[in-house]
Amino acid sequence: MGTVISVIIVIVVVALVALTVKIVPQQRVGVVERLGKFNRLLTPGLNILIPLIEQVRIYHDLRIQQAHVPPQTVITKDNVQVQIDTIIFYQVVGPEQATYGISDYVSGVRNITTATMRQIIGKMELDETLSGREKISVDIRVALDEATEKWGVRIERVEVIDIKPPLDIQEAMDKQMKAERSKRAIVLEAEAAKQDMILRAEGDKQSKILKAEGEREARIRQAEGYKQAQELEALGQAKAIEAVAEAERNRIEQLAAAGLNENVLAYKSFEALTEISKGPANKVFLPSNAMEALGAVGAIGEMFKGKKTE
Questions:
Q1: Which residues, 6+ apart, have CB-to-CB distance to 232 below 8 Å?
Q2: Strand, coil or helix: what is 14?
Q3: Dihedral of alpha carbons 39, 42, 48, 49, sign
Q4: Which residues of the chain, if any, have pLDDT below 50?
């Protein structure tokens, strides 16, 4: 009997400890009620409760959670049924509101998402719906923010995973897409051929221009070389003439300095002519005025007169 009582006491003590000591993990909080009324939040770490008076109503995970909204069939503005699959990312920021503001905030988020999605898609045509995922996500998030704020839940992100049109429309879209791709390929091929021709023509044009410029430059340099050569040749001739004139002037000055006048020079010249005329086949013809000049030389004049007489 004593053993049974001891076991019961141990069980009671263990139960009281279990009801009194609460260890809360990181990123989790507990909502404590005292006699059925909200009292406080249990933060991460060791917490003590009053047994049988206080109890933890619920624990909330404060990390970002995700809720998958099952695929919903909605009708677009142009009466086409499409199926949309969505995921909602949310976070509990007010544990007290999340506990007492709504019985199940996850279901509330899903239901608001479905209703908002139908309203949004009902204002959009099919093409706009297929290309407007970002707009749909933003509009759903704005609607959820307004509704979940009082629930202590913040919507982090809304992602539209997939939008599926009916099978016949999907096949038509596939055909249209293939036709568009074929058209784009043809256009790109034609554009590539056009660019190739343009580049080749441009290259040929540049080649001809460069060749013409090269020939022009060569002719200019050749003309400049010929011009410089002529200038140098004329300069050389002028220098040569100046040198000859200078030499002649020096010779005359030296002759004058040696006392040789015109008569002496004439005498020397006629001496040379006399030696030339001594040849049997040589004849010397002198103009009459030259003979008169020889007369002024005296004996020289007589010598040529005698030669003339012979």
A1: none
A2: helix
A3: positive
A4: 299, 307-310
Distance between CA atoms of 127 and 165, rounded to whole angstroms? 10
Query: CA-to-CA distance for 308 and 296, rounded, in angstroms?
Result: 17
- 218-259 pLDDT tens trace: 999 999 999 999 999 999 999 999 999 999 888 888 877 877
How far from 286 is each of 121, 263, 293, 302, CA to CA, in Å? 134, 17, 11, 14
Q: What's the N-to-C CA distance of the chain in angstroms?
A: 198
- Residues 42-83 pLDDT 10s: 999 999 999 889 999 999 999 999 999 888 889 988 888 899
* Cα 197 from chain centre: 25
CA dist., res. 117 & res. 133, Å (int): 11
Taking a C-beta distance cutoff of 8 angstroms, is the pair 30, 98 a contact?
no
Burial class (CB in 10 A: 0-12, 13-18, 19+), 252: exposed
Question: Which tokens hold the place of 191?
Answer: 């554009």
pLDDT of residue 232: 94
DSSP letter for each residue of the chain: -HHHHHHHHHHHHHHHHHHHEEEE-TTEEEEEEETTEEEEEEPSEEEE--TTTEEEEEEEE-S-EEEEEEEEEEE-TTS-EEEEEEEEEEEES-HHHHHHS-S-HHHHHHHHHHHHHHHHHTTS-HHHHHT-HHHHHHHHHHHHHHHHGGGTEEEEEEEEEEEE--HHHHHHHHHHHHHHHHHHHHHHHHHHHHHHHHHHHHHHHHHHHHHHHHHHHHHHHHHHHHHHHHHHHHHHHHHHHHHHHHHHHHHHHHHHHTT--HHHHHHHHHHHHHHHHTSTT------HHHHHHHHTTTHHHHHHHHHHH-
Dist CA 295 CA 83 (whole Å): 145
Q: For residue 286, what pLDDT is reported?
A: 59
